[in-house]
Amino acid sequence: MAAFLIGDVFIKEVMEMLSLSGDALALIEKKQMPVTIGIPPSINGCCIEVTECPSVVFGVPQQMSEYTMQSIQGVVVYVPKCLNLNRPLAIRSKKIMGIEWLYMDGWKLV
Fold first, then answer.
1. CA distance 93 to 16
2. Residue 29: closest CA among 56, 55, 54, 58
3. What are the tens digits of pLDDT across the range 12-40?
4. Cα–Cα distances in angstroms (integers) from residue 79 to residues 27, 48, 99, 108, in the given order
């Protein structure tokens, strides 16, 4: 069985490191669209590098060559190949004044 890397994590391990909360699953089912995790922006200085939390949006990525498609809890999720999953993360939803969106929970600035 071939193994592919996303950051330092094998693709087969993505499902163990990335989960969807119940409220996120409900919103995804309502929208009936795949989910894309954005490429996390990195800020490089002379002696420090910080990687910000990636965005989570509905739809397919514009640059498919930079992503791998995964099925997580029955949902199609496009994960950037450069994403370094070093701890379990969850995709959750928020709702303010009737507007709902997805976000990444558990991200630590690295």
1. 20
2. 58
3. 566 678 899 999 999 999 999 999 999 88
4. 19, 25, 24, 18
The residue whose two tokens read 């490089």 is 44
Three-state SS sequence of 78-100: EEECCCCCCCCEEEEEEEECCEE
What are the tens digits of pLDDT across the range 36-80?
999 888 888 778 878 888 999 999 999 999 999 989 899 999 999
The answer to whether 58 and 102 are in contact (CB under 8 A) is yes
Alpha carbon 85 to its chain centroid, in Å, reads: 9
H/E stretch holding 32 = none
Overall pTM surpassing 0.90 (yes/no): no
